[in-house]
Design goal:
Blueprint: H1 2-23, E1 25-37, E2 40-43, E3 57-66, H2 81-85, E4 94-102, E5 119-126, H3 131-138, E6 143-144, E7 150-152, E8 164-166, H4 191-215
Helix pairs in contact: 1-4
Length: about 220
């Protein structure tokens, strides 16, 4: 009876450790695209490369770690169009688009990165221009991947594009930490989790061996 109890405890611990390993994935680090209406942000239903904002629109971009659009962090402020484009006079045949670029918090940043301060800008461009063109006018350099996913605004972040991060990823450093390849990159379960699973398996094997020995 005692041997069976040890086996059951070992199996329960194994399941718990496996659950911990799979639960470590916290989400993805990426730029999200927002549109403002009445001072409130709404997650855009299409990407900036195809969205064509009207004159007087306010577009926002926020860098953060989130699982999906349902829990994505929105820009932390939502200035009105008049406040952002007050110094850019209207022009015939052109439209004005206000932009808010929120580079996120140090907790959102990858190891060795430091987010710049939030900024706002007013783009004036052709009526048929897209949100991506408006962003390119005021926040170069932009970086995209081969699938046209927006990876960086004003060069931030320096590398990476929508990469998956883990819940146990260490807090970002205030100083650049370059080229430390021996550290955990946060892309999977930690060594401690695997060690725990191995210990549980060893416990279960020992219990089974002891049970068979007693039967002899």
């Amino acid at each position: 009876m005692r041997t069976r109890l040890l086996v059951l405890i070992g199996l329960a611990a194994l399941i718990a450790l496996a659950g911990t390993a799979s639960a470590q994935a916290a989400g993805y680090r990426y730029w999200s695209f927002w549109q403002s209406s009445g001072g409130k942000w709404t997650y855009a239903t299409e990407g900036p490369a195809t969205a064509r904002p009207a004159d007087g629109s306010v577009n926002g971009f926020r860098f953060s770690v989130s699982e999906d659009s349902g829990d994505a962090a929105q820009p932390r402020t939502a200035p009105g169009f008049e406040a952002i484009c007050a110094r850019t006079p209207a022009k015939d045949g052109a439209k004005r688009v206000a932009l808010v670029v929120d580079f996120g918090t140090p907790e959102d940043a990858a190891q060795g990165e430091r987010p710049p301060a939030q900024r706002t800008a007013c783009a004036q461009l052709a009526q048929e221009a897209t949100a991506a063109e408006a962003l390119a006018q005021v926040a170069k350099p932009l970086r995209y991947n081969s699938e046209a996913l927006l990876c960086a605004i004003s060069g931030y972040p320096r590398s990476g594009c929508g990469e998956q991060v883990s819940a146990n990823e260490p807090a970002p450093s205030r100083h650049d930490a370059a080229g430390d390849e021996d550290k955990d990159d946060g892309s999977g379960p930690s060594v401690g989790v695997f060690a725990g699973i191995a210990a549980v398996l060893a416990l279960g094997a020992a219990a089974l061996w002891q049970s068979r020995r007693r039967r002899r």
